[in-house]
Amino acid sequence: MKEIIQSKLDRMSDLQQRRILKNMMLDVFKGIIDYQEDVNQEIENRLFNEIQDRDDNFTIYNTIVKREKLDIVSDCLFPMKEEDYEEEQYDKKEILEKIRNNEPVKITKIYLKKSYPELIKMEREKHKFKGLIISEDKEIPIDIVLQHNEEYIAIEEEMYKIFMQNAVRWTTINNPYIRKFYDVVIAGCQEDMGELNEFEEIVFDLAELEEDKCVGYVPVWNIKKTTIKGEGFPLPTKDKVNYEHVIPYKNLGYENGYLLAPNQNMISLRKNKDGIIITSNESNSIVWELFAVLQENNSLINDQYEFSLLSNKKKKSFVDSFFNKGDKVIRSYSELNRMLKSFEVTNDLQIKGINILDDLSALEKDISYDFNSYIVDEIRADKFRKVLVIEFEAMELDYLKNDLISFITSEIQQYFPEYICKGVID
Amino acid sequence: MDYIWDVLIKAKNEGIDLKDVRFCFASGFSPYMELSDSCINFRDIDKDVEINPYYRFFDIFKDLFDANYYKNGELRDVLFDLVVHFLGELDLNRGMDRVEYHKWFFYRELIEGTFGQRGKENIKYFSIDEKNILIRNLYKLYITGDHIFYLKDTIKNIFKGSIVYLNKLDKNEFLVYIRQVDSSENLKKMELIEDLFLPINFSIKIYWKFHFGIIDVAETMRIGSIANY
């Protein structure tokens, strides 16, 4: 509209009249037009947000940090495992005892900065590495093997169950880090250890992996466990009495997602302006165990971490929230693209094409894995499912490339249960 | 065309710059019509559009063209033109409802590349009318989830006179006959329609210009214009 005004003014021949009209237009009329545009924008935003306002504050952020640095970031990122706050301890006697009995002993865990195919290859080759038990008077050579660490994946699985118990929609957690942890295990000792029951340290050499090993790192995420007391009010339903327990926000926040820890007699949990409201058949006002999924914290935006902060954060998209309201599944090629683009981390990734194969044996190379391996499809048997191969456009990415496409493939898998979804990238 | 907004919509659809549309006070007009061009059934916007401002906006314009006042003629003409443009823009927002906004959001995300890079590029080949058909059906697809219905409907509406056959007997396949030629523009359009509506477990075969032969259907069995299935 403003361009129209300018253009029409420029075309006026009578200069005096042009000046008068120009002043009128620039003062009053421009104000009116601005006002009108603001009003239109406001209506548009209202309609956009009407559908946006679903509960989408369960974005999970994760990275790994050095154990010594844990406290500094603890206002928003917490170790997945509480024991990780403390230095690893080991009982030397017990270790020696186990070696004598030929039992494998786990001594520590390490993070390997390697891509998924490299790790798979390493696991398949079952390398044995050299190590030494160093005591005052002698050094005893030992065999070291690496075993995939599953403990953090188990914690993530627990979290999945908690999401289900709280009836919150699950979005695949984009956490490749916990899938690259390995336990360092003493597999055996050829030499006789004699009467040894004390040693100074254990050293080991991972040969070509030495460069990529990171020692003393722990996975952290933005889930905080807290306990808090609520106030109970009885509330009758048709056949029983329920109680509403109100937990005021205080130092919690409205923007966060809240989940109730399991086995707490919960019927439902919701939020309103005053606080978190738990409906339960528990009549006493008790202490509730909550998981707060923290959002909107500055530390979650600033990239100040040694290993980049990854998340399953969704972009603000109309179609995405519109789609998630419905119960229909759209199975078009564009929809695959849309799912890919709906996350912030996958914004630059492109799909090159798709391919449907009859079974897994036809798959040439398998370079993606399932992030949600713990979610079991109870309806379909694998051998009856076709394979949906999603080819991604090759691009410059670091060693986490396979993990990124695995993440998005795992998310697509949730919407296409009739296929086994696999991602491929050159 | 009956109203100011008819003119604006037509100008927008035909790619006419709104700066070049000039509304002016009709010298003689019918009290029952807003657009009062000397040629009542005019269809092209190639000159000034004469209107009767008192039809809807008597309160606004009752004093602007007072017959006893004749100074500053050009100022009043331009002012009138601008105010009518503004009122017309307001008109254009009046018909916006929830569905129109939702479709607009779909369109916006399509041109931003949410539905893939190819969608972002191929949408350029659609005319405004065709975009409307496409977005309307895309929106409805996301509500109902019925791929096949909207695929057929979109092809039929965008390529006039086309026929869509569905073969579900031995494989999931669409056969489409389109009367037009396979120009690069048409291929791009078809590509986007496939991307948006075709379920991934279906394939599609398109016959451009020539229909494939069907025994006993004389129209499809003319020598020299049969495609092979």
From TrEMBL, chain A:
Protein name in UniProt: Normocyte-binding protein
UniProt lineage: Bacteria, Bacillati, Bacillota, Clostridia, Halanaerobiales
UniProtKB/TrEMBL annotation, chain B:
Lineage: Bacteria, Bacillati, Bacillota, Clostridia, Halanaerobiales
Keyword hit for Oxidoreductase: yes
Protein name in UniProt: Iron-dependent peroxidase
Keywords: Oxidoreductase, Peroxidase
Naturally occurring in which organism (per UniProt): Iocasia fonsfrigidae
Organism superkingdom: Bacteria
GO MF annotation terms: peroxidase activity
UniProt keyword annotation of Oxidoreductase present: yes
